[in-house]
Amino acid sequence: MAKLLQRVxxxxxxxxxxxxxxxxxxxxxxxxxxxxHQDDIELNTKIKDVGLSEAIIRFTGTFTSExxxxxxxxxxxxxxxxxxxxxxxxxxxxNVPKExxxxxxxxxxxxxxxxxxxxxxxxILRQCYRMFRLQHGTFAAHAIEESDAEKRxxxxxxxxxxxxxxxxxxxxxxxxxxxxxxMLHSIQYMPLDKSLFLRAQNFGMLAETFPAIKQTVMLYxxxxxxxxxxxxxxxxxxxxxxxxxxxxxxxSSSSLAVSPSLKRSISESQVPGFVRQLEEGDEEMALNxxxxxxxxxxxxxxxxxxxxxxxxxxxLCLFLDADQPAPKQELYDELNAYLSGQLTSLAxxxxxxxxxxxxxxxxxxxxxxGSSSAETAAKYLFINEQxxxxxxxxxxxxxxxxxxxxxxxxxxxxxSSEKSNNPDSAPAEELQVKTTNDYWIVKRRCNxxxxxxxxxxxxxTLLDVTQEARRIFEQELTDDVFFDK
Length: 485
Prior knowledge:
Elements: E1 3-8, E2 11-19, E3 33-37, H1 43-61, E4 71-73, E5 77-85, E6 88-95, E7 98-103, E8 106-111, H2 118-136, H3 149-171, H4 180-184, E9 187-188, H5 194-201, E10 213-220, E11 223-226, H6 232-247, E12 273-275, H7 283-288, E13 292-297, E14 300-311, E15 314-321, H8 329-363, H9 370-376, E16 379-384, E17 389-392, H10 404-413, E18 429-434, E19 439-446, E20 449-456, H11 462-476
């Protein structure tokens, strides 16, 4: 039997953005390339890679529509294609996982291409675009006021380079730990009792006191308290931005770290105040030019100033119309005076309520077999396709988490939220899957809700699985508010 020496997880080989219309003349092929990572690759190699992608897209286009070109698998790599806007293509190339084994004294690479889920990693690629769009707008609209097409292309290329060099090195998720929640772009809302829920929702009415504020979004640590009127996709992108650039919550714990680009650290959030991003320490620039974000409202892209207010574990995002002059210091002072006391009180009451729930849930439990039972305990995941809310007890990104092959199967079973607006795409269904490593997956879907139960027991029969899944559904599906759109 071959001895396992080393396992190498999936890694990013390259990511590039191109538009074929920018380099149609011979000798100008390099103009098609708007961004390429890694940047130290020779220009001829970049041109060849883009040319190969163009050929693949055109070849598949003879059999299907142009947008149906999604993935290409080779022994060592997987290429994923995404056209976010007409003419603009994004391509992500992954090094597939491999296991290095010693066989008869010789090291042999066993490539595990089947572990790459096209749906999960295309969603990661799609999110790369959405994060750029959130902060810079669409590709086509960038520098639209510039009449010179070549100058406009160069400005877009500079913007892409400046954004993605930071995003790929700092904010891109660990590709080895991506799962179905990343695929569906789902976020977790914090369940609150009625009084705390209403107090949190009241901050959505700030426009009555401050007309300049158009929308509000509130988080407690990583969880959403109220999502305002943002589209679910924009809310997910905003949530990702806040977590990565403000909270920086580590996957292995709930401790908070701070991005070096922030003026106010998380440890200073005991004192309420606004979080401002500084460029080379220029505080005046941060004050006069707050962050702009681009979100879809009523099928139109609108630009807002985003003000981020932190107190204790609460993060309040305020959206102001960017067509108006930038907010002045007087508005910051008025908002701080109005919000400080109320948010501090709300944050402390939520923390008190969570502490009570934690004590109640652990008081009667026997933790003697905690570590061993945690791996075999039933896991569940409930997803609302239209609001993109999810509820789960899965410990994501931890060593004792769900195996990769089980996550890939769930991703294959999941229904995409992109088609959730079509009533014909939401049939009621139930199915059960048994894996080779003794896991059972039970899926139910009804009324744009997806429910999954994951069980690990080699002795379970089909009847046992059905009864256990029914028990979990009846036990956990008690919050009707969560499942309302």
